[in-house]
Specification:
Elements lengths: L3 E4 L6 H11 L6 E4 L10 H10 L3 E2 L3 H14 L9 H8 L5 H5 L5 E3 L4 E3 L22 E2 L7 E2 L3 E2 L4 E2 H6 L3 E2 L9 E8 L4 E3 L2 E5 L7 E7 L3 E6 L12
Parallel strand pairs: 1-2, 2-3, 5-11, 11-13
Antiparallel strand pairs: 1-14, 4-5, 6-7, 6-10, 8-9, 12-13, 14-15
Helix pairs in contact: 3-4
């Protein structure tokens, strides 16, 4: 059985990623993986991708990878954007040879030997894992057994609702109704420390907001973290 480390959302913070990898080097890790959202918000997304490529770090597609890939495809087809955005700067930072790595990221990774599933956002209940929709890349609140729609917790800017208002309408945090027997490792939702709820573990501890970059080592449930050098991006209610 391999020991694997699962790293939370890096969001363009290469110094913190290298610091965490240095710590993990002392832990007899067989394989290192990431939860997606390598990109945007931090100082150097391209450097983060380069590290993952060169060190053969496995991972899954995050909502930020998905959005950046879509914008790059638009640019390659000749679409012109009026304003330079964060996504444009991210695209410019990534080496040509590293795009294939991002394009091949799956929405889910299964590790059968430790009965673990790696995703970015979460999983829907009562749907076989091999049938999970692409929306799991940005999952936070769901309406169980009512399709694959998702909403943000905190203040939902899209629907202009608080979590309490969403809950009153039947929305819940996905892990509260997760009924899969596998361990689910995910990022996307920010916590102060790695957050374990039943057989799920969230490892995005807000590095880019000045928090920590964290990893969980399975199967022994050991947590390793490094502090961010600074807050690179103002924290928002949504992720």
């Amino acid at each position: 059985m391999k020991r694997r480390a699962f790293i939370g959302d890096v969001h363009g913070c290469p110094d913190e990623l290298l610091a965490l990898l240095s710590k993990l080097a002392h832990e007899s890790i067989d394989e290192i993986c990431h939860t997606g959202d390598l990109l945007d918000r931090g100082p150097d997304s391209g450097a983060v991708v380069q590290i993952c490529v060169e060190r053969k770090i496995k991972g899954v597609m995050g909502n930020h990878e998905s959005t950046v890939l879509k914008m790059r495809n638009q640019i390659l087809k000749g679409h012109k954007h009026k304003n330079v955005t964060e996504k444009h700067r991210t695209i410019e930072s990534i080496r040509h040879q590293d795009w294939a790595y991002l394009e091949k990221l799956p929405i889910m990774y299964a590790f059968d030997d430790i009965n673990t599933i790696l995703v970015h956002g979460g999983v829907l209940p009562n749907i076989p894992l091999y049938k999970q929709p692409f929306s799991i890349c940005c999952m936070q609140m769901i309406k169980p057994w009512a399709g694959d729609a998702t909403r943000w917790w905190g203040y939902d800017h899209i629907h202009e609702r608080t979590e309490e208002e969403n809950r009153a309408d039947g929305w819940v945090r996905w892990y509260e109704v997760c009924n899969h027997e596998e361990i689910i490792v995910y990022g996307h939702s920010v916590y102060e420390k790695p957050f374990r709820y039943n057989n799920t573990i969230g490892v995005d501890t807000g590095c880019v907001y000045g928090g920590e970059l964290s990893a969980v080592i399975l199967p022994d449930w050991k947590y390793i973290s490094v502090s961010a050098k600074k807050a690179y991006f103002p924290k928002r209610d949504r992720n």
